[in-house]
Design goal:
This protein is an all-alpha fold and 195 residues long. Helix content is 75%, strand content 0%. The chain has 6 helices and no strands. The longest helix is centred in the last third of the chain and has 37 residues. The chain is globular.
Length: 195
């Protein structure tokens, strides 16, 4: 495939931004396999895999924008990869008793609803992640990463609890942005549907 200069049609499907997105998707089952068992050693390994996967989210977006590598496939795949990583982490944290199930259900329910809505309007336009959705993703990533670290295994209880509750606060912020950004997506989808 030949590279197309910026402004002359869509970028090639096989590009570094899309490769990083697919790497994030591949890391999801690796993360699940590692964190299936909740021990400090597994938690640290899972944290590392999660951190690498979350870092690819920032990197693929930056590369796509800065090098003119934005593709419709990339917009959809990026969103799916984000949701797969976050949903897997939330479910396992709840399964291991580190996060309330109602938080996980609310966040995952929002993700499925927005994904379904995107699929409905995709024939008219691919909806890219909005600002609120990006902030939500960042807060979720930091909150989840904080809950993955086995603080109690190496810190005094007061310090460990303070860091755990900081992670909960980040997820509370993510929950607020989940709901507000969902409203933004609904408005955008309604506008697209009217075209």
């Amino acid at each position: 495939m030949t590279l197309k200069p910026r402004g002359q049609g869509e970028a090639p499907l096989f590009n570094i931004a899309n490769v990083l997105t697919m790497l994030r998707l591949v890391l999801v089952p690796v993360f699940v396999a590692i964190y299936w068992v909740d021990t400090p050693g597994h938690a640290w390994s899972a944290w590392f895999v999660f951190a690498v996967a979350a870092a690819t989210d920032k990197a693929d977006g930056y590369l796509a924008r800065s090098r003119g590598l934005i593709t419709n496939f990339g917009k959809l795949a990026d969103s799916i990869a984000d949701k797969a990583l976050i949903c897997a982490a939330l479910i396992l944290l709840s399964l291991h008793g580190h996060l309330w199930w109602w938080v996980t259900i609310l966040m995952i329910g929002r993700e499925f609803a927005i994904t379904a809505m995107r699929m409905v309007v995709v024939k008219k336009k691919v909806m890219a992640a909005g600002r609120g959705g990006k902030i939500k993703m960042m807060l979720q990533s930091f909150g989840i990463a904080g809950l993955l670290i086995p603080w109690m295994s190496f810190l005094p209880e007061p310090a460990a609890l303070a860091l755990i509750w900081t992670s909960y606060a980040l997820l509370a912020g993510a929950l607020i942005f989940s709901l507000t950004s969902a409203c933004e997506y609904v408005r955008e989808a309604a506008a697209i549907s009217r075209r």
